[in-house]
Amino acid sequence: MLDRKDIFATLTENWRRAGNPVGMKADDLTAWASGLKFEEGSDTIIYTGGLYQMVPFINAFVAGVERLEESGIGGAGFRVFRALSSIGLDVSSAYAALTAGDKKRFNDIVVRVVDLLSRSGVEVGYLGKDELYSGILFHDLGMDSIFEEQARAVSAKFREHHVRRAITIDPHSTVALKLLYPKVLDDFDVEVKHYMEVLDPSKAVAEGHLQGKKYAIHDPCLLARKLGLHESFRAILRRAGAEVAEPTRSGRMTFCCGGPLENIAPKVSSEIVVRRAAELRQLAETAVVACPICLANFSRVEEKTGLAALDVLEALR
Amino acid sequence: MARSFVEVKKEMYAALSDEKMRTGVARGMDSYLVNYRKVKDRPDVVQLRSEVKAIKDYSSKHMEELYKSALEALQRNGVPGYYARTAGDALEIVYKLVGTGKIVVKSKSMVTEEIGLRHFLQEKGNEVWETDLGELIIQFRGEKPAHMISPALHVPREAVAEVFKKEFGRTFDPNDLPGMVAAAREFLRAKLLGAHVGITGINAISAADGTIVTVENEANIRLTGALPPTNIVIGGIEKVVPTTLDAVKTALLQGYYGGSPVPTYVNLSAGPSGTRDIEKTLVRPAQGSKEMHVVLVDNGRLQASAGPLWDATRCLRCGACQLVCPTYSVAGPTWGGPTYTAAVGLLWTAITEGRQSADPLSYFCLECEACNDICPVQIDISGSIRWLKKMASEELLGG
Questions:
Q1: Is the pTM here over 0.90, yes or no?
Q2: Closest approach of A122 to chain B, Cα-based (Å)
Q3: Are B39 and B45 contacting, i.e. CB atoms less than 8 angstroms apart?
Q4: How far is CA B242 from the centre of its chain?
Q5: pLDDT tens digits along A246-285
Q6: How many Å lie between the alpha carbon of B272 and the closest alpha carbon of chain A?
């Protein structure tokens, strides 16, 4: 049983060392863009927040945390404030074991969004190694001083690159930049839009190309309740002609997959997603989501539940 | 003594494999949604939500003034009213009224759970019975309520049959719900008729004239309040709203959001029974209770209403937020403090037990905002839970 302090120490140490909570290398965060051409000096950028690229690393990290919890290390008597690496969390070998294919699936999601935006008539720049992590996990865990430090750093990079407009691709980073940065920073005047606010399905999505496909829709909680984009999510699928099966708990009343607890209480997180997956599995063999945290969480229990999960961006062809 | 993060996590992890609890909570959450959908878009309910939000906003900001007015109004009605600053004060007041060797019947009340009234009165040599069916089930099982409105939410029918067999000495078919309910009715009716004291709660109370409003389906509140010679009413000071009409609106909305699209009984009561049938002169008692006492419990509420958790003091205690919470769906009542569980229950734990008691619980909140979305008075439950996390995390980082 791991204490919050030990988990905090690890996430914080990773952030200090690598700039993100799972300690992923910058090369892995930017690899998706290699070979792509971006608008030079564009004041409109794609801001990936790194979360889609992070999915295989998050899964390896969570597996490490789960193993450590099962081994019985930690617990009430464990009072030393130190990182999990010192008590046996070895993620470096798990990270090294990730194959090119493991990473490609999630990198391709980011490539896809740039392509869809371009087809909608929106060309974007990309900050590459200057794109910093949003800090959102630290906000979720109440570590506001780190979140604010990270917000300042992101904002400074935006200023350095004269960014006026940032297009985000996942709900968590969107909430950070669009809703939270303006609260914690005095001078954040970048216009932030989620790609679903910008994308024009009539231009970007080939009509009817998913006809015959059936998906159970899982509304990511932040996308539906905080960003109100659940209808835009459906509009993309409708345009593609996919059959969308609605669970009892959908739209604004969606049921969170449990992903946000993956570090702090992976067992609770896993029970929630198994429950949700069972509800969706009654409707279809495949669920469609629009969030890397949901995607990671459903993928961890895919074998157990028999429910495959796709991000809407990868469902499109 | 507040539990540590690891202790909370251990209990929650253990609960994940409690199939009975999981079944009970899942069935309860599913049937709640069916009833919720019947009220959520009803034009009168939509209108009521905005009115009650305004009533509770005002009441929370004027809590002290309002509870004092309510006590004065009760006095004018010939009903002794008491302000209890702490849980201990409340117990002392009730003990002076009940004494020892009595049969006491109670309707369900979260504030009596909060102050530990049933156990206290039992320790003082009284026989105490819960008359709400769910609350009776958890009394039999020796547990705390799993939910504000449905205390036995975690107990599926099979487990009810088991505990009734133990208590009533005969077997029950778990699928014969009417049979089990009838057994409880028979058992409780005898207790109600023989009781010396009936303790009831408050859904809302009017500052203007001291009228108390309760909403229910079982009729146990009316019987508990009316049959025994003495009626003691207990509620939190946050239940005071300006007028009787405000109180009716507030209580009705609580009923709707508590899962009753058409609550069976709405009770208004402003004193012990009386009659003016002879020469229009008030004579007490008539058919119902001979005397009535009202105890308004503070226990952290007034202080909370002026601090960072003020938002939660507007809570109607309908428990809707708990019934849409994913963490609660798998961990059940283990995700909670000594009295209040899940969602807004974490904030009530902080208000009544202190922040330290709630802070280890706060980390199991997903911040998915299902609670905020359903709350009829728009409490930022998720944001307030995150505030608890922030206070605790920044302390950890700083130390």
A1: yes
A2: 31
A3: yes
A4: 21
A5: 999 999 999 999 999 999 999 999 999 999 999 999 999 9
A6: 44
CB contact under 8 A, A265 and B12: yes
- Cα distances from B98 to residues A149, A232, B196, in angstroms, run 59, 62, 9
The 10s digit of each residue's pLDDT in B231-273 is 999 999 999 999 999 999 999 999 999 999 999 999 999 999 9
Whether the CB-CB separation of B70 and B210 falls below 8 Å is answered with yes
Judging contacts by C-beta atoms under 8 Å, the chain B residues touching residue A261 are: 327, 364, 366
**CB within 8 Å: A3 and B5:** yes
Helix locations, A97-143, DSSP H:
100-119, 136-140
| Residue B62 one-letter amino acid | H
- Contacting A with CB below 8 Å, chain B residues are 4-7, 9-10, 12-13, 16, 26, 30, 33, 324, 326-327, 329-331, 360, 362-364, 366-370, 372-374, 386, 388-394, 396-397
Question: Mind listing the domains of chain B with CATH numbers?
Answer: 5-40+307-398 (1.10.1060), 43-302 (3.40.50.10420)
- Of B290, B285, B247, the C-alpha closest to B267 is B247
Strands B204-206 and B230-236: unpaired
User: Nearest-CA neighbor of B159 among B25, B24, B32?
Assistant: B24
Distance from CA of B33 to the nearest CA of A (A): 9
Which residues in B lie closer than 8 A to residue A75 (C-beta atoms)? 6
User: How far does CA B216 lie from the centroid of its chain?
Assistant: 12
Minimal C-alpha gap between A252 and chain B (Å): 8
Q: Read off the tokens for B327.
A: 């963490």
